[in-house]
Write a structure and sequence with these properties.
The protein is an alpha+beta fold. The protein has 4 helices and 3 strands. The protein has a domain of about 35 residues. The protein has a 3-stranded mixed β-sheet. The longest helix has 28 residues.
């Protein structure tokens, strides 16, 4: 079911009751802008997403550990200029003069 923002203001109690059964789409100019769900539905959804996000984060940390930079220029400090010059390259669109 979808309902406009104006209707949702007038029928908030009924909208909340309906959200206990299934998600309710709120629209503005016939375009979905929000979804009202029960607290239970939200908690289940959040719980199912959290392990996936943690797994991806662990994988990123493992990749960073496995593929650490092999140079000694460092990311900051006195060798910052060396790193910046190493990463700079000529601009193909710049005037060569």
């Amino acid at each position: 079911m979808s309902i406009s923002i104006a209707q949702s203001r007038q029928q908030l109690s009924a909208l909340i009751a309906a959200a206990q059964q299934h998600p309710q789409v709120i629209t503005k100019h016939n375009t979905p802008v929000a979804v009202l769900v029960s607290a239970d539905y939200f908690a289940r959804s959040e719980a199912s997403v959290k392990p996936v996000a943690e797994s991806i984060y662990k994988q990123v940390l493992q990749l960073r550990e496995n593929f650490a930079p092999q140079d000694n220029a460092g990311l900051s400090g006195p060798d910052l200029a060396a790193r910046q010059s190493a990463w700079q390259r000529a601009n193909a669109f710049a005037d060569p003069s």
